[in-house]
Design goal:
about 300 residues, alpha+beta, 7-stranded mixed sheet, globular
């Protein structure tokens, strides 16, 4: 239930992403979820806009976007179901607190019969004949058997890499950002219904408004910017008072050679990581879950 989910995760609605200073300084554009306007006589709106631009009569493209019309005013309402109405020409996503979302999903699952076993993995036993994971041993000695294991252990990849040595393809050559600084700050007024992404030296800064705080981070390339400089820049560009010290994150963009190896499926950071500019990791997690369900025997 959407209302229950948004309330439990201190979430807010997301009509798109505003990109600031990417093309040039003091310039911004909006990337919506959905289209610009509505087709007219089967011709997409942007074709008319291009023709108007050639005549020197075109308005700013963002002004033809229903999502931005609402977002720049700090407003949100669900899209209308009538496809003939311009109020149906946008879609939306969510901002949410990831920790609260994990807790929400845990309660949701346990209420429906899922059994949670808490513990730290101390050892992994492989089947000598098949090479499959037979069971994992927790640090208190308990053994957890399974036919299929989903590795959600993050960058470490305890099963997909630690046990099965699947291998990793390093994509740093194409995606050179390898660090991030993250810090929450106090909220500044009502949350706006969009993410803001601001280009910075050697990277970019995110701003994600929630009900109770604003999430901020600076993604950058360590070849061109030090951790201290990144932290200083981040703290100097917050909309409210910092609620913690900047937390450093390190990553290597790329992917495992296999996402499904023997009886282990890697979903999330254990499978790989891409530049987080478009919330790619969240999308890949959801896509991985959907594919697993579709292919589950």
């Amino acid at each position: 239930a959407e209302n229950e989910f948004v309330k439990a995760t201190q979430g807010s609605f997301k009509l798109g992403i505003q990109f600031v200073n990417w093309g040039k300084q003091d310039h911004a554009y909006f990337h919506p979820f959905g289209t610009y306007g509505r087709n007219f006589d089967l011709v997409p709106l942007h074709q008319y806009w291009i023709a108007a631009q050639q005549r020197g009569e075109a308005p700013d493209l963002d002004d033809l976007c229903m999502a931005w019309a609402a977002a720049k005013r700090g407003k949100f309402a669900p899209p209308l179901p009538d496809q003939r109405h311009v109020g149906s020409t946008f879609d939306y996503a969510y901002h949410f607190d990831a920790g609260l979302y994990a807790r929400f999903l845990r309660h949701y699952a346990e209420a429906r019969g899922v059994v949670r076993i808490e513990g730290k993995i101390a050892d992994v036993l492989l089947n000598g004949e098949t090479g499959h994971v037979a069971h994992v041993t927790l640090d208190d000695g308990r053994q957890v058997d399974g036919d299929l294991f989903v590795d959600c252990s993050g960058f470490r990849g305890l099963l997909i890499e630690g046990a099965l040595q699947t291998g990793y393809q390093d994509w740093t050559h194409w995606l050179p950002c390898d660090r991030a600084m993250a810090v929450p700050c106090a909220k500044a007024g009502d949350p706006v219904p969009y993410t803001r992404s601001t280009a910075r030296e050697a990277g970019w800064q995110w701003r994600i408004p929630l009900q109770h705080r604003i999430g901020n981070g600076y993604v950058y390339c360590s070849q061109f910017l030090s951790d201290d400089a990144a932290a200083d820049t981040l703290l100097a560009n917050l909309d409210g008072a910092a609620l913690a010290d900047p937390r450093p994150l390190r990553f290597v963009t790329g992917r495992r050679n296999l996402f499904w190896n023997r009886n282990v499926v890697a979903i999330g950071l254990s499978g790989g990581f891409m530049e987080p500019l478009e919330s790619t990791s969240i999308h890949l997690i959801q896509a991985g879950i959907s594919k697993l369900l579709a292919l589950f025997p």
